[in-house]
Amino acid sequence: MAITDFFAGEIATELLKQLFMISAKAWKYKSVAERLIDLIEDIQPTIKEIQYSGVELPPHRQAQIGMLSNTLEKGKKLTEKVLSARRWNVYRQLTLARKMEKLEKDISNFLKNQILTHILADVHLLRANSDVRFDRVDRSLEMMTEHLGSMKIGGGGMIREAMKIAEATMEIEMGNEEEKFGVGLEIGKRKVKKMMFSAERGLIGISGMGGVGKTTLARELERDVEVQCHFENKVLFLTVSQSPMLEELRAHIWAFVSGYEGVNPVPNWNLQYEGGVKTQKLVILDDVWTREALDALTFNIPGCTTLVVSRSKLTEPKATYDVEVLREDEALSLFCLCAFGQKTIPPGFDKSMVEQIAGECKGLPLALKVTGASLKERPEMYWKGALQRLQKGEPADESHETRLLHQMEASLENLDPTTRECFLDLGAFPEDRKIPVDVLINMWIEIHDLEEAIAFATLVDLSHKNLLTLGKDPRLGSSYASYYDVFVTQHDVLRDLALHLSNKGKVNIRKRLLMPKREKALPKEWGRNIDEPYRAQIVSIHTEEMDEMGWSDFEMDFPKAEILILNFSSDKYVLPPFITKMSKLRVLVIINNGMSPAVLHDFSIFANLSYLRTLWLERVHVPELYNTTVPLKKLHKMSLILCKINNSFDQTGVDISNLFPKLADLTIDHCDDLVSLPSSICGMTSLNSLSITNCPRLSELPKNLSKLQALEILRLYACLELKALPVEICELPKLKYLDISQCVNLSCLPEEIGKLRTLEKIDMRECFFSDRLSSAVSLESLRHVICDKDVAFIWEEVEKAVPGLKIEAAEKCFSLDWLDE
Question: Where is the RPW8 domain (predicted)?
Fold first, then answer.
């Protein structure tokens, strides 16, 4: 049954309550609130009949229900915003009133199409058909019982074969129309659901080797309609990883199961509830490595079920489902789909060779996908060479998972040397963590001497070959795209492969010196040969809190190091003293994975980084700039993400343009204490790109912006308190791209905007302007404007005057996603 929280009555009920409150208290919204109440009350009888039907709807009907549910969920958030809005903020009241009217229009349009009526008709039809199908299933079970009853216990093989036939028969009788690679996934789902729905099962598990499809099965269960219905759409999916942030995960789980956020410390897990029946909830913990981590994240609360996904068996045998590799026919179908784009071997191709290569993958889904993608569109002779390499890389005395690394290594053979090196660089990042695309591209630009466009193409190529997962984002690949908030991920087995290949040989001679997982201190083997220099070009360290004593045994010399990545989890962190010996360091990435910004100590050692070109600081306190006694003369790009600025830019006597004389790209994102930019920032004559995004307290820009003569890109995305752009912005001679989207308090563009003769693109989504731009007809280079539908009219005259101009009216006039931040 396709049931969401909406059809459980929760969202609709809460929304109605808030609409009644708005109708009673907020007279400005009274009429629209009353109309919304009428709409929702009219559809409630239909909702209840669908809710209690007990049938599973087809995917397109589930999607339609999901659309309405999402709309009402956003409406609930919007009404919360209306109820908390301050009366004196007239502009905000006007903006929210428009959004309420848009909500009414969206719901009304949905109902005009009579979609709920069609869904209800499908419910009646499916209910009738299911009665017939279940009769056939019952007959199949009776036949299976009779068949098994005629067999002896000793005939184990016959029994297993009979069970397979029976399970396949049930799949056919249930009439599942979705395409699958055999019944393995559905059988797994059914077995795990049976354990889930059993009242006495509070902790159940999915186990199997890496790459066998455990996470795929868990994700399918997360989306399964019966699971959503049983747990009333209350399902939480979390990735734990080999180096888990246990306190952060505990807090997240506690907020989910209790409904209380921000509780610190988290109460004892094993507390007992008294009273009536509790709401059913499901917590899925993916990629759990140790029993200790599992014990820290599980609890004894009635109504809550925990599903553990792990390479090891961490739950009782009776409560564990072991994921098996694909059958031979399933494996061949998956391999062919990745290699040929179809589930069968094309006519004329060497069938025996294809079957042998697929067979070498031993039914492991990840190996089949990666190997198939690597051979796609390759000549047949290349396939023969690949088969020979796969056969040679399978030692008989190694485990299946170890053999996988050899097989996966053969899949890298068709990569050009640079792309292969880029793949190996991915091992420098922690497991199960999103990797910022911006960091990757900057690394590849510096260490592999790639142009930015080539680096991006390499990223896409690795994604197409299933060697990484590139997040879907409409900005990817577009002109003036930014990548600091776009990420890639990589499967554990692929990361293991990168580490396996990078960690060969003596520590001192490795090209990459990488820590496979987070540790309290550096690996001991790193300190055994400190009398010899280390040849590593990339150094990646992943620890907890580090102080002077933690570094004392590792006085290492890195004369060739060009990239240093420091991942840690703490409130304070002493930078490694050996940075002073990294005379060729060009990229420094410092990421705190803790829950609050960290204080960095010994930041003065930056004075020795004369070759540093890229600096990425994430979730740290930006240090006082006057401690940087020597300017970073070659620093080209600086990114401050989720940092505390602490007035670092406002110190008297600090001239930022002197500290960073060659800075071309400055990004400040999600820094919630940034109120203003110093005027000295306008002295950066080399600045080409300035991005100040998601900084809610930024209220104004420097008046002398016109001094930024080289500036081509200006992003001011989601600066909610920014009320005006300085008129000096119209004096920027090279500005090509302006992004002011989600600057909801920005009421207009400067009147002299027409002076920006080089401006090519403007993004102004969720900016509610009402005045036409008379001077904008002079924007002769303008090619693309993105805005909301209800303000597109202000560009009508400009569209007539500027040839080739595209006015893209966004489908959604506003997004409420930022309310969740």
Answer: 1-149
Please check whether residues 21 and 70 belong to one and the same domain. yes
Q: Which residues of 392-402 are buried (b: 16+ CB within 10 A; e: fewer)?
A: ebbeeeeebee
Neighbours of 42 (CB within 10 A): 10
**Position with higher pLDDT, 308 vs 391:** 308
Q: Is 693 helix (H, G, I), strand (E, B) or coil?
A: strand
Omega cis (within 30) before 265: yes
In a domain, 813, yes or no: yes
SS3 content of the chain, % helix, strand, coil (to 5): 45, 15, 40
The two beta strands, 203-207 and 806-810, are unpaired
Contact criterion met (CB below 8 Å) for 250 and 203:
no
Same domain? For 340 and 479 the reply is yes
* Bridge partners for 512 per DSSP: 538
CA 58 to CA 760: how far, in whole Å? 45
The amino acid present at 404, given as its one-letter code, is L
The range of the structural domain enclosing residue 172 comes to 159-177+326-489
Specify the CATH number for the domain of residue 313. Answer: 3.40.50.300
CB 787 within 8 Å of CB 764: yes
Report how far Cα 731 is from the mean position of its chain's Cα atoms. Answer: 38
Nearest to 718 by CA among 690, 748, 691, 744: 744
Number of domains observed in the structure of the chain: 4
Spell out the residues 6+ positions from residue 570 whose beta carbon is closer than 8 angstroms to its own: 544, 545, 546, 592, 594, 598
76 domain residue, yes or no: yes
> Does residue 398 sit in the same domain as residue 346?
yes
Question: Is residue 76 domain-shared with residue 207, that is, in the same domain?
Answer: no
Percentage of the chain modeled with pLDDT above 70: 75
| Tokens linked to 508 | 């001192």
Alpha helices, DSSP H, located in 644-683: 656-659
Mean pLDDT of 623-645: 81
3-state secondary structure of 429: coil
Same domain? 339 vs 234: no
Residue 558 lies in a domain: no
Alpha helices in 326-470 (DSSP H): 328-340, 351-360, 365-375, 380-392, 400-411, 417-425, 437-447, 452-464
User: At how many degrees (to 10) do helices 328-340 and 365-375 cross?
Assistant: 30
Does residue 483 share a domain with residue 369?
yes
The answer to whether the CB of 574 falls within 8 A of the CB of 550 is yes
Residues 6+ apart with CB under 8 A from 612: 585, 586, 587, 588, 606, 632, 634, 635
Same domain, 195 and 244: yes
Digit-coded pLDDT (tens) for 90-124: 667 777 888 888 888 877 776 665 556 556 555 55
3-state secondary structure of 503: coil
**How far is residue 298 from each of residues 21, 233, 264, 731, measured CA to CA in Å?**
39, 20, 17, 60
Yes or no: say if 507 and 513 are a contact pair by the CB < 8 Å rule.
Answer: yes
Q: What is the pTM of this model?
A: 0.63
Same domain, 238 and 354: no
Q: What is the pLDDT of residues 444-501, one digit of tens each?
A: 999 999 999 899 999 988 887 778 888 766 566 667 777 777 889 887 778 888 988 8
> How many Cα neighbours within 13 Å face the side chain of 488?
27
CA 502 vs CA 372, 428, 512: distances in Å: 24, 10, 6
